[in-house]
Fold:
Amino acid sequence: MFNVPWADYADDLVDGIIATLQYTVLGFVGAFILGLALALIRLSRFKVLRGLAAAYTELFKNIPLLAVIFLIYFGLATVDITLDVLSAGTLSLVAFYGAYLSEIFRSAISSVPTGQTEVSLALGFGRVSTLFSVILPQALRTALPGTNTMLVDLLKSTSLLITISAAELMTQAQLIASETFRALEVYLVIAVLYFAMCYPLSQFLLWLERRLAAGKPLGPGRRKRLQHAAALLESYSPAQKVNA
Amino acid sequence: MMTLDQPLTSAPANTGKTAISVRGLEKSYHGRPVLKGIDLDVRAGSIVTLMGKSGGGKSTLLRCLNLLEVPDTADMTVLGEQVFFSSRQVLHDLPALRRKIGMVFQKFLLFPHLTAFENITYPQTKVGGRSQAEAEERAVQLLDRVGLRHRGLAYPDQMSGGEQQRVAIARALAMNPQVLLFDEPTSALDPESTKDVLAVMKELAETGMTMVVVTHEVGFARDVSDWLVFMDQGLIAEQGDARQVLESPKNERTRAFLAA
Structure:
């Protein structure tokens, strides 16, 4: 059964994996920013913008990703907007997943109790710093599970970019299969490669969620500060301070 | 647990000056009047208690004092500054004003994703203009003062209500406010936690902090506060020296409330 000379295709596979990861990272970062912007607009007091953002979200949530890809790559070309494959592919993923992420972010931001805004204002935070320093850090924790699901989903969806020959893993697979006529073997291997990327990613994200839920510091900066705090709390003595 | 060898805060000891002055404050929600013309003076260093039935406008009045609620009309001076001009035009730098007026809420409202210690340091470094080291020193000091130094690394959901409220008081104090507002600080607490929180508030009162307290705790009003304001249906029914009002209330509604 295993007759494909994989060693000859190693470079193609590596290229495919790199391209897949590249689309994933670019698409996700863009979708994250777009999603957050849309969510904030939808929660703002600007009625017209709110309506536009809602319309955008509904539009892209109800069109298949494949149709979005075709519209952006082939459709726009007919009106003389020609995008290269990388731009068109990334843009499609951003446009599509931005809509989904905006829904996740919007509900997460709404789920932070209004009391948190009030107490921040009362402490002297401005409107903007309340949003970015108090509300969003809490909202993003709530949004994490949904966001993680979207990230893994986005990675898998890069395979649809085969339709515009994006040179990602699925495109490479098709090339190898057409050269070797070993479709079962080739696509099995490709499925394993996707699994090998997605499974560790989702496990890592789950681990992240659990750590955050348990209140463990994620970055070295906060870990250090908390260790320092523990030492300060342990060693403090009010009497010492008076004498000093 | 708490000693007075060092004051909890650097609250100004100058009593007598007016910290907050309110004249003719009116506020309505959707056409329903909640406050119908309030005149109130809070002297610096005094403890003012707001009492009355629920829905009488106490909390709304308190929230107007740091402009969390915007009055419809009022003549308001806070810490020597006119802060309210019209419902469309309030003081431009509200955050700066609010840093001078701390507020403690019924529901504590600690930041749930941060430890007690970080709850106290975070606002100081974010908007209080302090360095991390300064903020940390202040946090340890204040946690010790409210008797919770051993709970510094606990998260809010790991603390009892009383502990959370004491951390919330420490967090408010960390910004060095000149006035502290309390919105029913013990209403969500069991009797024992209530005692702990009231003890912290009492010590605070003894340091000369200006405090405005919405509460149902008659004991606190009698033993700690100087001035009692009794509110009813959006108006001040009666106000005066706390002990006098409690012992011989003149207003019929005050009498009915206190007899209940």
